[in-house]
């Protein structure tokens, strides 16, 4: 399981600076509490080339969950995201620490959100730390999808969540989540269907019309889940940084022998 929307938003501070009029959003209610887990993932290009492998871990202590997703790229790049959240009736972010560096990422990221205090810390390439405070809404969700999506009924027309975009001047933006279709897939020869959840960064006012015209509208992100109790993660697709290529994230299984 992974939380790659943080990567999609990782370098969109230019767009965040022109966002206006954030609509109301609310924390996602817990339908399926998250448990301890350990899984393996891969990032591939859309033509199937393997470019990174990763591990996803979750450790539960009471109602607090520590989730970590780390990808190691073949070119030496690292994408490492550690998220702590609680799940008392609703999901609430405690903290998120996201690091991206290496040849695959034109703009390195080392960004910490402390949601309970509103403190934001950014480490730039020379090691300098910059800190500032932001009044964060209770639904701020850095590092949480698709954990949140597992708890959104596919019949829900639209859900909105808040995100903090890292940068020299961190910004608060809104993401719209909608079920927009389905994807057929097979497991062990059995045909199944997954719901396509589209995650769209909303640009308000005139900037929402101008951004697509000048090529600055961030690409949508897609997460496919098979419905059930609980739902099952199937696939993710989207850029991991602003203007980056569309990459695909899927679970992988170990292989044995030489």
UniProtKB/TrEMBL annotation:
<protein>
    <recommendedName>
        <fullName>Secreted protein</fullName>
    </recommendedName>
</protein>
<keyword id="KW-0614">Plasmid</keyword>
<keyword id="KW-0732">Signal</keyword>
<feature type="signal peptide">
    <location>
        <begin position="1"/>
        <end position="25"/>
    </location>
</feature>
